[in-house]
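User: Study the fold:
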Amino acid sequence: MTQRVVITGGASGIGLTLARRFAERGDRVALCDADAAAVAQVQADHPEMLARQANVTDEAQMQAFFDEVGAALGGVDVLCANAGTGGPAGRIEDLDYDEWQSCIAVSVHGTFLACRWAARLMREQGSGLIIMTTSTSGMYGVPHRSPYVAAKWGIVGMTKTLAMELGPVGVRVNAIAPGAVEGARMERVVQMEAKASGRTEEEMRAVYVKGNSLRTWVTADHLADMALFLASPAAEKISGQVMAVDGHTESMVS
């Protein structure tokens, strides 16, 4: 059955892979992203998708996007509240307050705006699925990454709470917790954490590999596999869960 799928932070990385995979199975996809160039590339490569520039922390921009999505799709079956940012790295006493606020705003406030919109429609429909992107950092403490960790723990809390609020009307809410995901964003994180910790980039990569049972990184397609499963009839009784796709994290510190 064709589903109407909306993805925030959908023009690159995990979000773009989610958009591509949902579209490949025949779903109608709408996405937003703050990166104008990335959105333009999606529009060129995937004219079948509705792709718009919008900053998830700007209520007016997001409402304009949601209004257009509502008119184009007539509703929403799956929301992937995926937008996030790595935030700064450093000891808590050295962090800049504006950078802290920016990290929290994208992950937490942006997820709130997307979930509020979807919840209103899904409650009316009596059905729907919300998938939030958290992180294994939302399950463990990570030195030098307190803003990111706080934001991702916040998303876990939202997942649990919204599952309770919306479950009685037939709406499921889950989160996907990626481990270390191959790609440009993770390379930037490695560079940032290496600088903050005084280690080399190679040493930081080794920490991530050593920290999970499978001794490997994951790919965006592994995360999309989980999202597609959650959006399938096979997962109709799964709600309020944080689905880690991480090779089984044993430790975030080494």
